[in-house]
Amino acid sequence: MAEFGRQRGKRQEDDGLGSVLDLLLANARLVLGVTGAAVLAIATLAVKRLIDRATSPRDEGDPKAEQKTLEESWQDLALIKATPKPPKKQRREDLSEPLLSPARPLLPGETCEPRVCSAPPETPRVESSPLRCLTLQEKLLSHYSSRLAVPEVQVSLALQLARSICTQLQTFLRNKCPELPFGSLFLSGPLLDGLEALTADHIHLMLPVVLDATLWSLIPGEDTVVRNPHYWMIKRTDLEYFPRGCSPWDRFIVGRYLSSNALNETLHKMLVASINWPAIGSLLGSVIHPVVASQELKLEVKHDQVELSITLFPVVEMEDKVLLAAPPEGLVENLWLESFHRAEVSKVKELDAGDSGARQHCLCILNGICKSHPALHKLSGSPLTHVVLHLSATSSDWAEESLADRFQQVLEELVGYLEKGVLPSYFNHKINLFSELLEDEIDEMGFMLYRAISEPELLLKEK
Prior knowledge:
single chain, alpha+beta, Beta Polymerase, domain 2, two-stranded antiparallel sheet, 11 strands, 12% strand, MID49 protein, membrane, Mab-21_HhH/H2TH-like, MID49/MID51, transmembrane helix
């Protein structure tokens, strides 16, 4: 009877242990996954067998039985050690697979206790005030004040450096080439004009070439082989009466014409090889390097507070024309580019002064957008100024309150000019300011600006 009680108690303990292990294994798949549950099942089975042998009565004195028990224990321990380690948890790539496996069917007398998941603490609700939609006018003014305003400290330092370099270069040219009547160097460019400056990083240095009007005359570009009214040629005259050598600039003649290329090459050699820029830079507290590989006459200036690019332009002023030694790429080397920059700036400021207009603000915003946009950067500068001047002839309301309307109108005008592929100069309608653009470039610019007409904010986004 006592033996029966012990066996019954053992069966009840086994049943209880089995129920616990079954429940553990059933929940293991939920927590560990299929592979982890399999590993846990093998380990649990081995441990259960060890527990069974530990609680079962021993046949003391039977060495064979003890040896058998010991061997089975080693086998079970070896089984536990041989179980593969569960792989590291990986990301679940296939979202179509069920995250949880189906639950095990309940055994008779077993109840399913609901799992209680702790809910994340509620975040306090913050009543957000309704966002205020800015008008295009407000966005343009914000864009102008936040991105286009140049700090006065940078402007002052950049101008100071440029003037000092201008003085040093002027002294060098007078000492090195006293026979060449260069005029007084002066500064120009966006930083001084206020129409397109984004940062205080670029200045033009104008070097006047003084010609004797009795020995030189201008030939219009449409009368030359290039047939381009934007360029001019400067011809040496009266060689029969005033032979070569009468003008100090005769050394730069190519085929009876003053060669812009020949003059630029001579100045380029001086900038690169003849001037002691390290000494000048040390005197000014900066580092100055001439750009050797550039076709232009460029200096790069690095200071602790500003980095500056200075471009030198030889310039001829004759017969109310301003001509730059900036020939087009190609075999023609005697051409001089007519510049309207001085007339553009003067006319825009004159119009703004007459009606308290916002043309300068509008141009500054447009130039900033085009310069920073990879598809529109060739539109910045002169083309935009001429569009605004054309528009000023038909639209008289350029007050600050109408900035958004004029801005959109300029975009529409630009799209119209791009569709034709022609933007006539405000000062000379024979000149097409789009003549240097490729067809693909015109198409890309036109597409971008056409989209911006209905959604101007596209142009104000950060690039």
